[in-house]
Write a structure and sequence with these properties.
Chain lengths: ~650, ~120
């Protein structure tokens, strides 16, 4: 039950604790570890791509392997690195920022992380089991139906499993933020991180079902003999493109909005000023979220939608620049005249403004449909989306890692090493991707595994590769920094940055497993700052000290996810050698065990769902006495 | 320790709850009856062909719309307080879904085989 006795734990009990945990702080760490692992994996794939492209006519990777590497780089970075790492920071901060003891559905939170982990493992097993997916991260249907072997099946099933986890987590965060805010925490007093998490969660709720449907159709085409995308049988491959981008465009906002949230917190903290134009920021966040759904066809200008459709989507796309511009100017106005402290997170935040704006400007260039015919499928596009995703999201992840590290691990990352990481990453990033704009304008196509000598691409590609190595050095320094910090384990106290503004900094570190001994009363925007300036620097409680209810740990989420993981293998090998199957797999050896495996896997999942439904799990109460003991101990430690 | 803390209700509270539930039940039954009635009319109009098809189609669509409203507001409790967010989500969902359908019909040529 309550973890009072657990001072010294064995390795086994720690692992069991993390397998069964429903605590948002531990789930944040799970997301961080798994997301960080996939981030490194995707980074290694990126290095392979850049080594292959460093010199003309290179044969470091074969053409087929190159396709697999670019597909897995894109898929891993978007689905298995960027999003889970953002979930790590959301989990670590949002319940603390709104004054809640956990998420609305702690069990589902655990299910979400395990579905993501098992989906990610399944996708990456493709490297060892006959070849990775090779149709690009967009997996356009005609190409992915034709792709021989099981690569695309790993893509479809892996993303289906991890996508279900993401959808569950999105619902969870939206519900938590809507229903579980502390007294006084009105919508217009929520920190920007919470606001952007709310909007991103709503986008997940609306955007992931189209992806789920699209992948289901692809799964049925590839594994169960349907014809949704098979043109010879009356299918239509354009439907996949639409479904994918109806999901895919909101997806980039799902990534960038929490990044905006992290930066908004960092700007306000280290400029020691209230965020400029808070209500305009909220309005812009919601507007970006709404517009995000109305622009998906700008990825498909060259498909042949016709001039009317292209014009509508071009104008809608350009409209997004307005709320984004509002945000950029508000951040500049926030640091304007502030007393700026150049910490590592702040460096990332300051570098983010020009970097992201450059990516935004090239986005507007591509929004002009006639011009897009020139940019389409060239390195210009590659440069653009790396500028917004690396310059926006990855900068935010690295900034957030340094900024929120004390909340998650009660220690501080080394600032000097952090700044070394920053400078290597910043210089390497611009060196890698700025030159790629010009490569694109000179005509170098994307997704092609090599280029000929004498086309004028040599020097630029070499510069780009050197830049990629600088980023790799940055990540290695970061890993060293993390290892040193964890080994030293120098504990820090409450509010380690000294300028915390929001509720999460008002809690003692390490954060008690119940977060708040008493739910605080929020008296304004930047609740903790209000108390620092107008009160005694402590949050006022909104309730008397009483017993409160907490959820029990459970192993069921792992079992449910494992069931789907097993079922995925059954589904994948089901069509092998069948006469009704598509050409890609009909020549393979039949696997009679596939159907039983599918049934057993789904059985495990449904039985564990049944256990969850019919066996009551009412949780437990944290007693007043225990909380009082903790508070006393804290008092003694503080003196 | 594993059971939920519950305090017994006072008599007045119980009375109030009972009244609320009776009213709720009546509303549910009325809207249920209305919906059955509308369905009957829709079936009847289509089966007996008393009026021409170009009138029947909009009429049936109109009945369907009324039924959707009744379903959402009375059966799924959207009329109750504290459902503003649910309402906002449903409206947004409708808007997106309709926008997607319109574009699919007009630019993905799904409509083409129908014509």
């Amino acid at each position: 039950m309550a973890q009072t006795s657990a001072r010294k734990q064995g390795v086994g009990s720690v692992i069991w604790e993390y397998l069964t945990t429903v605590d948002h702080k531990k789930i944040a760490i799970l997301y961080l570890i798994a997301g960080g692992f996939f981030f490194v994996l995707g980074g290694i794939e990126a290095m392979l791509i850049r080594i292959q492209l460093a010199v003309p006519n290179n044969d470091f990777l074969s053409a087929g392997l190159f396709n697999e590497v670019i597909t897995m780089h894109g898929t891993t970075m978007i689905f298995l690195a960027a999003m889970p790492l953002l979930f790590a920071f959301m989990n670590a901060t949002v319940p603390l920022q709104i004054g809640a003891r956990d998420l609305a559905f702690p069990f589902l939170n655990s299910l979400g992380v395990w579905l993501f982990i098992f989906g990610g493992i399944f996708l990456n097993l493709s490297w060892f089991m006959g070849g990775a997916p090779d149709a690009g991260w967009t997996s356009y249907a005609s190409l992915s139906i034709a792709s021989p072997g099981h690569g695309i099946d790993f893509y479809a099933l892996g993303l289906q499993i991890s996508g279900a986890g993401t959808l569950i987590t999105g619902i969870n965060f939206a519900t938590t933020i809507i229903t579980m805010r502390a007294p006084g925490m009105t919508y217009m007093r929520m920190p920007l991180m919470t606001w952007t998490t709310l909007v991103a969660s709503v986008l997940i709720v609306f955007a992931f079902p189209p992806l789920t449907i699209g992948i289901f159709l692809l799964m049925f085409d590839r594994m169960f003999g349907s014809n949704f995308f098979i043109v010879e049988a009356g299918g239509n491959t354009i439907i996949w493109e639409h479904l994918f981008w109806i999901f895919g465009h909101p997806e980039v906002y799902i990534l960038i909005l929490p990044a905006f949230g992290i930066f908004s917190e960092i700007f306000a903290t280290f400029a020691r000023k209230r965020l400029f134009g808070y209500s305009a920021m909220v309005f812009a966040t919601v507007l970006i979220g709404f517009f995000g759904f109305m622009v998906w066809a700008h990825h498909m200008f060259t498909v042949g939608l016709g001039p009317t459709a292209n014009a509508i989507f071009a104008v809608a796309t350009m409209a997004i620049a307005v709320p984004t511009g509002i945000k950029i100017f508000n951040w500049i106005a926030t640091i304007w005249g502030g007393s700026i402290e150049f910490t590592t997170p702040m460096l990332y935040a300051l570098a983010f403004i020009p970097s992201f704006t450059m990516g935004g400007v090239t986005g507007i260039m591509q929004a002009a449909a006639p011009a897009d015919y020139q940019y389409h499928d060239s390195y210009f596009i590659v440069a653009h989306f790396h500028y917004v995703i690396v310059g926006g999201v990855v900068f935010a992840l690295l900034a957030g890692l340094h900024y929120y590290w004390p909340i998650m691990f009660n220690t501080m990352l080394n600032e000097t090493l952090g700044k070394i990481t920053f400078w290597f990453f910043f210089v390497g990033f611009h060196m890698t991707f700025l030159i790629q704009h010009f490569l694109g304008l000179w005509g170098m196509p994307r997704r092609v595994f090599t280029y000929l000598d004498g086309q004028g691409y040599n020097a630029a590609n070499m510069i780009s590769t050197i830049g990629a190595f600088l980023m790799a050095i940055a990540v290695i320094v970061l890993v060293v920094n993390i290892i040193i910090t964890l080994a030293k384990n120098e504990r820090v106290g409450m509010d380690p940055w000294g300028d915390g503004r929001t509720l999460e900094w008002s809690i003692p570190l390490p954060v008690p497993y119940y977060n708040f001994a008493q739910i605080p009363l929020v008296r304004g925007l930047d609740a903790y700052w209000v108390e620092k300036k107008e009160g005694n620097g402590k949050m006022m409680p909104s309730e008397s000290l009483t017993d409160f209810h907490m959820p029990n740990n459970s192993i069921l989420p792992v079992v449910m996810s494992l069931g789907l993981f097993i079922a995925a293998f059954g589904a994948m090998y089901f069509p092998d050698g069948q006469e009704w199957a598509i050409d890609a797999v009909s020549g393979l050896e039949p696997k009679p065990w596939a159907l039983p495996v599918l049934i057993i896997g789904l059985g495990i999942t449904f039985v564990s769902m049944g256990i969850r439904s019919w066996k009551d799990d009412l949780g437990y109460y944290v007693t007043k006495e225990e909380v009082e003991r903790d508070l006393e101990e804290l008092e003694r430690g503080g003196k | 320790m594993a059971e939920l803390n519950q305090e017994p209700m006072t008599k007045a509270q119980l009375e109030y709850l009972r009244r609320q539930r009776t009213r709720e039940m009546r509303q549910q039954l009325v809207s249920f009856g209305l919906m059955i009635f509308l369905t009957f009319i829709a079936f009847g109009l289509t089966a007996m062909e008393v009026i021409p098809a170009q009138f029947t189609i909009p009429l049936v669509l109109g009945f369907a719309f009324i039924q959707v409203i009744l379903q959402f507001y009375y059966f799924m409790h959207m009329k109750d307080n504290g459902h503003q967010f649910a309402k906002l989500f449903m409206m947004t969902g409708f808007y997106f879904a309709i926008a997607f359908c319109v574009t699919f019909v007009y630019i993905v040529w799904i409509g083409a085989p129908v014509n």
